[in-house]
Write a structure and sequence with these properties.
2 domains; about 180 residues
Length: about 180
């Protein structure tokens, strides 16, 4: 199982290695010359940002496909678990507490899965707007780009406390008690 899960990561690393270390005949020096950059003084990240080889497109396609596949697994498993719990609750004629708890956990997991996407979108928005604003430094925007990603560990428990009823009641009792 671990080997199966690690294969997509190794494929990603192999594609990334091929993209990051292009051969000397790659069009990167030509592109940096077209935008008046000195290839010896330009950081490597700027040099590879203008790569337009098939490897770049393959890497982007692989990342998008891998992300979509990961979220598809989350959605399919969530739907199957929900159906199984609802069916078990109906057959055993128990209270719907299991269904309610499953609903709360499902909402929590979906929101926690969406957080990295929101962080990435905010980072991309900062990156895109920095291209259009001339008088700002890159360090200023780098701070905003990294902020959403670092807030994810803080927001995950907050989402859990807000969505799961038993946690929410305990926290609100602490705030409401004298």
């Amino acid at each position: 199982m671990l080997l199966t899960a690690s294969i997509p990561v190794f494929v990603y690393l192999w594609i990334l290695y091929n993209v990051m270390y292009p051969d000397p005949s790659s069009p990167i020096p030509l592109l940096t010359a077209q935008i008046s950059l000195n290839i010896n003084e330009t950081p490597q990240i700027v040099q590879i940002a203008y790569g337009s080889t098939i490897s770049w497109y393959l890497l982007c396609l692989y990342i998008c496909t891998f992300d979509i596949a990961c979220y598809a697994v989350i959605i399919v498993c969530g739907i199957k678990i929900r159906k199984s719990i609802v069916k078990a609750a109906q057959e055993q004629q128990q209270s719907s507490r299991a269904v309610m708890y499953n609903r709360q956990i499902s909402i929590t997991l979906v929101l926690q899965a969406i957080l990295p996407c929101v962080g990435s979108l905010l980072s991309m928005l900062c990156l895109l707007t920095s291209n259009f604003i001339e008088e700002t430094s890159s360090a200023y925007f780098m701070a905003f780009i990294s902020m959403p990603v670092h807030w994810i560990p803080v927001l995950n428990p907050v989402i859990t406390i807000i969505v799961v009823g038993s946690y929410r009641r305990v926290v609100f009792k602490k705030f409401n008690s004298p």
